[in-house]
Amino acid sequence: MGGGSVSGMTRIDNNPGGAPRAVTVRGLVKHYGETKALDGVDLDVREGTVMGVLGPNGAGKTTLVRILSTLIVPDAGRATVAGHDVVREPRRLRRVIGLTGQYASVDEKLAGWENLYIIGRLLDLPRKASRARADELLERFSLTEAARRPVGTYSGGMRRRLDLAASMIGRPAVLFLDEPTTGLDPRTRNEVWDEVKSMVGEGVTVLLTTQYMEEAEQLASELTVVDRGKVIATGGIEELKARVGGRALRVRPADPVQLRPLAHALDQLGITGLAGTVVDTERRSVLVPVLSDEQLTAVVGAVTARGITLSSISTELPSLDEVFLSLTGHRAGAPQDAVPTDHTLEEVAV
Amino acid sequence: MSAATATLTPADLQGADAPIPLRAHLRHTGALVRRNLLWIRQDPESMFDAILFPVVFTLLFVYVFGGSIGQSLGGGQEAYVQYVVPGLLAMTGMNMAQGVGTGFNQDFNSGVMDRFRSLPIGRGSVLFAKIAVELMRMLFATGVLVIVAVLVGFDITSWPGLLASVGLSAAFGFALMWVFITLGVTMKSAQSVQAMGFLVLMPLQFGSSIFAPTASMPGWLRGFTEFNPLSALADAARGLMIGGPVAHGLWVTLAWSVGLTAVMAPISIHKFRTKS
């Protein structure tokens, strides 16, 4: 059969002498009428790693996942998953992937157990094996008690866990998670993160899309930042974080009148990362990207020296907006030369 | 990359994707039938229309219009029962078609269809399973209809004729199903699929010989009813069940069924495949 030779060739061809790649994407293009959902995307995910695809709404993240899981066909470019071409070998490809996301979902009217059992049967597991696999996964995702209840009665977190379980039935080599925690409260989000981490521990390769830097940092080892159908940055997560400015320090003066003098003082320190100091008038605080503990200390020193009283100080991860600002010089999803229209955040000239 | 493409032979490409054996197809379809049946068990109200349609329509038409229309048939209510029941029976296939289209729409909207489409199964399995369950619902509705019909005085003169009518109604339903699948795949909500179906089917059903003889209708409407495939279907069912001419209605219905399938099946399959 040609399947083996095709996948062999594809892998060798796309990956000369490197570590095995679970996902290879080259020049992928998808148009919807005038809109370019994907505009020449290149991407590589090495086996056993977690690739985070970070970007705002409409960046093309979901389109990418839908092409890689064979739900839609690209207009141009090539993509292979576990050595199988998305266009030429969709059935072989479907056997080795799992999909959980905004769209691919579970059946609300059916019980959790039934959902998993039927997917097992569709993946050609014999009846007995399908039953055993459903029981096993429900146990693993702490859903045994709710196994016989219709999914419609589940909480958001339970539902998402069942979604993950459903994508694990076929023991996939590559798992696609399309915004796995969007719409979940923080506690439930942590639960889902823990599940994803334990799945990664079993050696599955994951491609995860997200709008949150925090989620990418929690789960991914590598990151690809996309905007308007294009990859704008890619690399290890630490590397990108360093480029973005590591953390942001949120400094809140006791007297809001001190906001601008404070921002001015911090700017003069000359330590700020690419994003610059930002005054957040709504939350009456100043955001300073810092790269090291020394810089953090220097910030506190400068504040003390000016005699400004603070009501609070905390560190935050950079937001998606800050990531974009520092990587591209413009806000997420905004045209390159547009003036920021966000009134709560205004940039202070450096 | 071009080097790899160049070394691919046509044989490689043909064998490149794993074909699905027939037995696997049957197993997948079986699993999906199970899923659709569980839907009904979980939500028994979805069977209401299969019970209510034959009961309400039979009682409504027989007792409200039966007396007066019956007179024009040269009898009374009894004559009208014989006239309208074959027409109602012919309609059950259309309900089946609508059920398949609405079901597809719900599965797409809930994301379940994406789950199925990301699994290594033939996409035909999803369709066959849906048809199987809707066909069961249709046969159930037909059974209810026959019982109610006999209770209000319908005289079954030919059992083979009755079965043939059910078959003809299903055949037309299969053809119409492609129209509803196209609607189901392209329209936003299940409600709009139903509303659209209602808008299209309602004038066709009432502007036909299903409920009343067309002789007393104005000329333009009679022209429409004669062209209307539902008239042919109802006339054929009537001929088969209570006696009378069959051939014309039968051929016209079959021709429409073949024509609808030839035009709409490729369209709906294309829409289904390229649905993003």
From TrEMBL, chain B:
Cellular localization per UniProt: Cell membrane; Membrane
Key words, A-Z: Antibiotic resistance, Cell membrane, Membrane, Transmembrane, Transmembrane helix, Transport
GO cellular component, as recorded: ATP-binding cassette (ABC) transporter complex
Domain ABC transmembrane type-2: start-end pairs: 45-275
Species the sequence originates in: Streptomyces phaeoluteigriseus
Protein name in the entry: Transport permease protein
Topology class, membrane: Multi-pass membrane protein
Protein's UniProt keywords contain Flavoprotein: no
Source organism, top-level taxon: Bacteria
GO biological process annotation, one example: response to antibiotic
One matching Pfam family: ABC2_membrane
GO molecular function, one term: ABC-type transporter activity
Main subcellular location: membrane
Membrane-spanning residues: 47-66, 162-186, 198-221, 250-269
UniProt keyword annotation of Cell membrane present: yes
Family the entry assigns: Belongs to the ABC-2 integral membrane protein family.
PROSITE patterns (UniProt xref): ABC_TM2
